[in-house]
């Protein structure tokens, strides 16, 4: 298979973890007989420094022409001035909207070897395997913003069409898994959430009659994610709630550095990135966890390139690496010594060969 991939290393630890993701793609291509054309483009704070904008036209054009986009991370103190005319996050929001990637999939699976890395009791974590489906191009992040000296507002808007399409994505996923869908809102207070609940109920009843649907207020969901996480299967929610809850859910696994994400639209092209930030405090030290980036590559292989065997092989290599006791600094020592970014990436690739064709 031939595929063209746009690589946006970004800022902070982004280039470090992306380097390991690119190595993984090269290894997959070699082991399975594919040809991947990977080209790097400036994005985020690095692009602001070089071009005055977080999303240069050449970068956007390359992303539109690519079969998939791989992103590291963006942002940092250098560009965090609230009064700044342009910020790295502006580029990310613009890229998501330009690519039409409205469905953000964030799987959360607790590996048995990492039960001690989480702050929760191990008995609560056994069997945790859930997926968040976060609406990505609507809501308060994209609404009209106003501010004067003594007042500010951010408008949260959702249309029925936006809710319908994200619920369908989540419902199809739930139907292929354990048949349970939890829709998270704040319908006791917000009109957007009342519309969200009405539309979700209608779509599931009409189009997915065998699906078990539960509505849950966002504050209750935040509590139950910690109290009974293995009861969840697929969770669907709006943009801001999903942003916050998935960071909370990452702590079930032991580290934000472990979680991948896929942002998808109507076609095959998607945007893939670990959910962690740019972590400027550890940038350049070679200790960042690359596993979230590697698992994001697996999602890229599965969703944009339809290479299920290759995706499963990479996920199995990551699981084997964790089972062997390999840890990065964010996970703490256990068994083998703590590895740096490049060493952890190499440990995964050494195990990838076991799952590749003879």
Show the helix and strand layout.
Blueprint: E1 2-10, H1 14-32, E2 35-40, H2 45-51, H3 57-65, E3 68-73, H4 88-99, E4 103-109, H5 122-125, E5 129-135, E6 145-148, E7 151-154, H6 160-176, E8 180-185, H7 191-207, E9 212-217, H8 218-227, E10 234-237, H9 239-253, E11 262-264, E12 270-272, H10 291-303, H11 308-323, E13 327-328, E14 338-339, H12 341-352
Parallel strand pairs: 1-2, 1-3, 3-12, 5-10, 8-9, 8-10, 13-14
Antiparallel strand pairs: 4-5, 4-11, 6-7, 11-12
Helix pairs in contact: 1-10, 1-12, 6-7, 8-9, 10-11, 11-12
Structural class: alpha/beta
Spatial strand order of the main sheet? 2-1-3-12-11-4-5-10-8-9
Distance between the termini: 18 Å
CATH topology of the largest domain: Isopropylmalate Dehydrogenase
Q: Report the strand count.
A: 14
Order of helices and strands: EHEHHEHEHEEEHEHEHEHEEHHEEH
The helix content, as a percent range, equals 40-55%
Which CATH architecture of the largest domain? Answer: 3-Layer(aba) Sandwich
What would the keywords be for this entry?
single chain; 358 residues; alpha/beta; Isopropylmalate Dehydrogenase; 2 domains; ten-stranded mixed beta sheet; 14 strands; 42% helix
What report would you give on this structure?
The structure is a single chain. This protein is α/β, with parallel strands linked by helices and 358 residues long. The protein folds into 2 domains: 1-106 and 255-358, Isopropylmalate Dehydrogenase (3-Layer(aba) Sandwich), CATH 3.40.718.10; 119-253, Isopropylmalate Dehydrogenase (3-Layer(aba) Sandwich), CATH 3.40.718.10. The chain has helices at residues 14-32, 45-51, 57-65, 88-99, 122-125, 160-176, 191-207, 218-227, 239-253, 291-303, 308-323, 341-352, and strands at 2-10, 35-40, 68-73, 103-109, 129-135, 145-148, 151-154, 180-185, 212-217, 234-237, 262-264, 270-272, 327-328, 338-339. The strands form 3 sheets. The protein has a 10-stranded mixed β-sheet, with helices on both faces. It has a two-stranded antiparallel ribbon with strand order 6-7. A hairpin with a 2-residue loop joins strand 6 (145-148) and strand 7 (151-154). The longest helix has 19 residues, at 14-32. The model has no long low-confidence stretch (mean pLDDT 95).
């Amino acid at each position: 298979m031939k595929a063209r991939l746009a690589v946006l290393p970004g800022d902070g630890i982004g280039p470090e973890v992306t380097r390991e993701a690119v190595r993984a793609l090269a290894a997959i291509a070699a082991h399975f007989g594919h040809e991947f054309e990977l080209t790097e483009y400036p994005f985020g704070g690095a692009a602001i420094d070089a071009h005055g904008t977080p999303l240069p036209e050449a970068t956007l054009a390359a992303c539109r022409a690519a079969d998939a986009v791989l992103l590291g991370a963006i942002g940092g103190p250098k560009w965090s001035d609230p009064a700044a005319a342009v910020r790295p996050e502006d580029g990310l929001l613009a890229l998501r909207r330009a690519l039409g990637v409205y469905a953000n999939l964030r799987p959360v699976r607790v590996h048995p070897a990492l039960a001690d890395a989480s702050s929760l009791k191990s008995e609560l974590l056994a069997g945790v395997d859930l997926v968040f489906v976060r609406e990505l191009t609507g809501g308060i992040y994209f609404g009209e913003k106003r501010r004067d000296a003594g007042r500010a507002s951010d408008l949260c808007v959702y249309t029925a069409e936006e809710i319908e399409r994200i619920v369908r994505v989540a419902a199809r996923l739930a139907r292929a898994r354990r048949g349970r869908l939890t829709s998270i809102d704040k319908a006791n207070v917000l009109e957007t959430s009342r519309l969200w609940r009405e539309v979700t109920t209608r779509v599931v009843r009409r189009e997915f009659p065998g699906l078990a649907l539960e509505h849950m207020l966002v504050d209750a969901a935040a509590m139950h994610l910690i109290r009974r996480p293995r009861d969840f299967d697929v969770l669907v929610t709006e943009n801001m709630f999903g942003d916050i809850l998935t960071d909370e859910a990452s702590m079930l696994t032991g580290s934000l550095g472990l979680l991948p994400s896929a942002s998808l639209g109507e076609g095959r092209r998607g945007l893939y990135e670990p959910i962690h930030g740019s972590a400027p405090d550890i940038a350049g030290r070679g200790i960042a966890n690359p596993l979230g980036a590697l698992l994001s590559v697996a999602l890229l292989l599965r969703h944009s390139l339809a290479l299920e065997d290759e995706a499963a092989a990479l996920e199995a290599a990551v699981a084997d690496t964790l089972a062997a006791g390999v840890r990065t600094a964010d996970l703490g020592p256990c068994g083998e010594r703590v590895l740096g970014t490049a060493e952890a990436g190499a440990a995964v690739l050494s195990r990838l060969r076991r799952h590749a064709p003879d």
